[in-house]
Each structure stands twice: as C-alpha cells, then as structure tokens.
Amino acid sequence: MKGTNFSNPAGFILLGFSDQPQLETILLLVVSITYVLTLVGNTAIILVSYLNPKLHTPMYFFLSNLSFLDLCFTTSIIPQMLWNFKGPEKTISYTGCVIQLYVALGLGSTECVLLAVMAYDRFNAICRPLHYGVIMHPKLLWHLAAVAWISGFVESTVQTILVFQLPLCSHHRVDDFMCEEPALIKIACVNTTFLENELSVASVLYLVIPLGLILVSYGCVAGSVLRIKSGEGRRKAFGTCGSHLLVVVLFFGTSISVYIQPKSNYTQNHSKFLTLFYTVVTPSLNPLIYTLRNKEVKWALRRLLSRDSLGLNLL
Questions:
Q1: Burial class for 312, CB neighbours closer than 10 Å (0-12, 13-18, 19+)
Q2: Please, are residues 148 and 117 in contact by the beta-carbon 8 Å criterion?
Q3: In the chain, where does DSSP find H-type helix?
Q4: 91 by DSSP, 3-state: which?
Q5: N or C, which end of the chain is more exposed by having fewer CB within 10 Å?
Q6: pLDDT tens-digit profile of 154-175?
Q7: In this structure, what are the phi and psi dihedrals at residue 44, rounded to the nearest 5 degrees?
Q8: Whether pLDDT at 305 is above 80
Q9: How far is residue 253 CA from its own chain's centroid?
Q10: pLDDT tens digits for range 196-217
C-alpha cells in the first residue's frame, strides 16, 4: 500500500484548471459575475414570493425553497472556487473538504427531490384543477418540503461517511475545483468498486427515479394541456411547465453525466466542465427562466421595484 495515508490528511490540493492559468483568469471573472446574478436573482424571487399575497401559492412556496436552496448551494462552493482561481493557493483543509462535500451533496440531493415535488404540484394544478386546493393544502406543502430536505441530507450523511473512510493516496491531489465525491473516489488507494456501485445506486435513487417521475408527470400534463380549448390557457400552462422542464433538463442532464459512472473516461475528461455548469450556471439561470417566462413574477417584481422607487423619491 505504498503511497497510501491511512490517517486524516492536513488538507487537499484542488487542481481545478491549474494547468490552464489563462482559463482560470477568465473563469474568475465569469464565475464572479454569475455568482452575483445568482444571489440577486434568487433573493428577488424569495422576496416577491413572500411580500406579494398573490404569490402565496404552492408553486411559489416550492419555488422559494428552490431559490433558497440555490443560494446555499452556490455559497457552499463558489467562494472557495474563486479563491482557487485567484492565485496559486489551491488547498482546502480536511475539515473544510468534509463540510463542503456534506453541504453541497446534501443540497444537490435535496434539489433532485424538490424538482420532482414541483412536478407533482404542476400535475395536480393542471390535471386535477377542481381538487387542487384540497390536495395541495398547506400541511402537505410543508411535509413535502421536509421530505425533500431531510432525504437529501440523509443521503449526504451516508455518502460523506463512506468517502472519508477510504484510505487516500498520500499526494491528496483532487482533480477538481471542489470536494466532489467522484473526484475524491479517484484518489483512494484501495479498490473502490463497492463505493462506485453504491454511488451508482444512490444516483439512480436521487437522479434517475426523480427524473423519470418528472417526465411521467409532464407527459400527463401535456395530455391535459392539449385538451384545453382556450389558446390562452394552453400558452399559460405550457409557459409555466416549460420553465420547470428547462430547469430539469439543465440540472439532471449534467448531474447524471458526472455521477452515474464516477470513474468513466468520459467523466474523467469532462467532469470539471459539467460540474461547473450545474454548480454555477444552472442556479443563476433558474431565476431568469422562471421570471422571463412567468408574467406573475415579472408583474410582482415591477410592483416591488416601483414601490421602492416611490419610497426613495419621498425620502
């Protein structure tokens, strides 16, 4: 077992894109701007959903949860990423790595379940409109949100414990810009077949099954929408569901590519860019996708901004 360290290392070296310093400079600027947009956009959605009584509906309750989740998710990853891009210092402490993996994996798993819950909400709203208020009552909303958050962090707890019980190679060089499970598995100096298989099973449970439920849900929704006689009604239904489907495709598409086969050649060559996409790009696009395609949110935002402008003028 030469080259193996059975004790906890002092820290890890996150290689990221250190072999491409020019790319790191570009990414530093792009990721900084994207992070600001993520903070502003998701905070705005939470505020308008809370302050506007017309948006106190199940859809915006879950959308607020998604926005809060994305704020936490990006904040657990991007500040460390920017520090790594900024200069030659690429290290992260052992404790910091454990915390980052636990939080990011927990929030990512929660998002998978939450997107499935949001699809269930849209299914009831469009396919069972007469019973929607009875089915999606406030108590059920809180229960569904709790299931998403709790199940996500239960999964994260199991995965984090399993990963950090592995004996690691003494170089502790993680070929990624964050502490992500597939990248950490690659630096283990033992046979990781069991953990790879376990990760694949977890990926099926938290990625493939939720995606399948979402697609079935929206298959039913599409059938119901096509039976709507009103052209305006069809456009509104497709607009609302289309925005959710776009988020689903962006998030699940990249996540599945990274996690289903953690040691595949494809993942090894492209995982950093895929990870960059679902950790940085997707959370920043969520507010834009929902607001640009949703008249209610745009109206609420304009009202909030006009009220703030009026308040400043009075001062």
A1: exposed
A2: yes
A3: 21-51, 58-75, 78-86, 94-127, 132-135, 138-163, 181-185, 193-203, 209-226, 231-259, 265-276, 282-292, 295-314
A4: strand
A5: C
A6: 999 999 999 998 887 766 888 8
A7: -60, -40
A8: no
A9: 12
A10: 888 888 999 999 999 999 999 9
The overall average pLDDT reported for the chain is 83
Residue 233: pLDDT band (50, 70, 90) is: low
Could you tell me which of 305, 132, 123 has the C-alpha nearest to residue 219?
123
Phi, psi of 165 (to 5 degrees): -90, -10
Q: Is residue 57 a contact partner of residue 121, using CB atoms and an 8 Å limit?
A: no
Residue 126: is it exposed, middle or buried by C-beta count within 10 angstroms (0-12/13-18/19+)?
buried
Question: Taking Cα atoms as reference points, which of 199, 170, 169 lies closest to residue 186?
Answer: 169
Count CB neighbours of 90 within 10 A.
Answer: 17
Which 8-state DSSP code applies to residue 3?
Answer: T
Tokens of 231: 């052209």
DSSP 188: B
Residues linked to residue 168 through DSSP beta bridges, in sequence order:
5, 188
What is the identity of the amino acid at 46? I
8 A C-beta contact, residue 293 and residue 247: no
The answer to whether 207 and 252 have CB atoms below 8 angstroms apart is yes
**pLDDT grade, residue 23 (50/70/90)?**
confident
Look at 257 and 106; give whichever has higher pLDDT: 106
User: 289 and 243 in contact (C-beta within 8 Å)?
Assistant: yes
